[in-house]
Amino acid sequence: MKKRQRKKQAYKQYIRDIFEGYETMITDPAKEKLEFHYLKEETLIYRDENQQIRFLTRDM
User: Fold this and answer.
1) What are phi and psi of 35, to 5 degrees?
2) For a surface tag, which of 1, 19, 27, 53 has the fewest beta carbons within 10 Å of its beta carbon?
3) Distance (Å, rounded) from C-alpha 47 to C-alpha 19?
4) What is the DSSP string of the chain?
5) How far apart are CA 18 and CA 44, in angstroms?
6) In angstroms, what is the C-alpha Rg of the chain?
7) Do the beta carbons of residue 12 and residue 5 sit within 8 Å?
């Protein structure tokens, strides 16, 4: 049971980090790319050629 709770807490933190990263990119236009990892999943937040913020989530 404790292992499941730890995984759940880690995933919640992963999601929080992604949203905080998104807010950071909104307030700081100089940031071009952020990466977040959780187990075998990777999320990239980046700016495209039009300076719009994009998300890319993929399995590693």
Assistant:
1) -125, 140
2) 1
3) 15
4) -HHHHHHHHHHHHHHHHHHHHHHHHHH-TT--EEEEEETTEEEEEEE-TTS-EEEEEEE-
5) 9
6) 13
7) no
